[in-house]
From TrEMBL:
It is a multi-pass membrane protein. This is Transport permease protein. GO terms for biological process: response to antibiotic. One of its GO terms (cellular component) is ATP-binding cassette (ABC) transporter complex. Pfam families: ABC2_membrane. Belongs to the ABC-2 integral membrane protein family. GO terms for molecular function: ABC-type transporter activity. InterPro entries: ABC2_TM, ABC2_TM_bact-type, ABC_2_transport, Nod_factor_ABC_transporter. The chain crosses the membrane at residues 12-34, 46-71, 101-120, 126-152, 159-179, 219-239. It is found in: Cell membrane; Membrane. The keyword Iron does not apply. Keywords: Antibiotic resistance, Cell membrane, Membrane, Transmembrane, Transmembrane helix, Transport. Residues 14-245 form the ABC transmembrane type-2 domain. It comes from Actinomadura harenae.
């Protein structure tokens, strides 16, 4: 199933092209348009701070494609066809998640390369950089589980396209992806401190940038705990929704 979805990439090059356009656009916009206008804490480089936030935000947004893809399969009746084949029922969900993970990691590599061209640097060392990409993978799997549940719960592709994105905007923009927590009002900061995107961004900054400004631990454990919890809860909900769809 993973190969089936990945074969669509060369057949529909627009899919990969537009998957790359938005993250690259965000990198350039925040680097050259908004970067100089944001207040940073003392000793924090704005480019380093913003680039990691954009990388993490793009990984969460990219998972909306899982919602649309699964809803499209449902609408076209492909799920019913898959049910008649001699394969595990989990193959549809695992295949979709696997293909989106591969595609989004490619997007992450391109996006980071663009970031390097505009001033971003890995100051956390080789293992920190590798760990940061591992955090991207965990983010895709975690948010992809939510996307899969949404895609299997709505009635058509149009609804999935909206439902898969609408919840991501408040979640990412009420985190510290783009502004320090200290600049937020107290009522919003209370939420931002426990926001899973904040945990992921803190961990990625600690890995990519490193001490003395950012520290990877315990941020990495907190982020992984959030990601694991999301996979367990929403993965189970997605499987249940898929089984309900199969029983109709």
């Amino acid at each position: 199933m993973t190969k089936r979805h990945l074969r669509q990439v060369p057949r529909i090059p627009e899919l990969m092209f537009f998957s790359l356009v938005q993250p690259v656009m965000f990198v350039l916009l925040f680097r050259y348009v908004f970067g100089g206008a944001l207040r940073m804490p003392p000793g924090v480089d704005a480019v380093q701070y913003l680039m990691v936030g954009i990388f993490a935000q793009s990984m969460t947004f990219a998972t909306a494609g899982i919602s649309t893809g699964l809803a499209d399969d449902m609408q076209k009746g492909l799920i019913d066809r898959f049910r008649s084949l001699p394969m595990a029922r989990s193959a549809v969900l695992v295949g979709r998640m696997g293909s989106d993970l591969v595609r989004n990691m490619f997007v992450a590599v391109v996006m980071v390369l663009i970031g390097l061209l505009v001033g971003f640097r890995f100051t956390g060392g080789f293992w920190g950089a590798l760990g940061g990409f591992g955090m991207f993978a965990a983010t895709v799997l975690a948010f992809g589980s939510i996307g899969a549940w949404i895609g299997l719960s709505v009635r058509n592709t149009e609804a999935a396209n909206i439902a898969g994105m609408v919840w991501l905007f408040p979640l990412t923009f009420t985190s510290n992806a783009f502004v320090p927590l200290e600049t937020m009002p107290s009522w919003l900061r209370a939420w931002a401190e426990v926001n899973p995107v904040t945990k992921i961004v803190n961990a990625t900054r600690g890995l990519f940038i490193g001490p003395p400004v950012f520290h990877p631990f315990p941020a990495v454990w907190e982020a992984l705990a959030w990601c694991a919890g999301m996979v367990v809860v929403f993965g189970a909900l997605a499987v249940r929704q898929y089984q309900r769809a199969n029983s109709r």
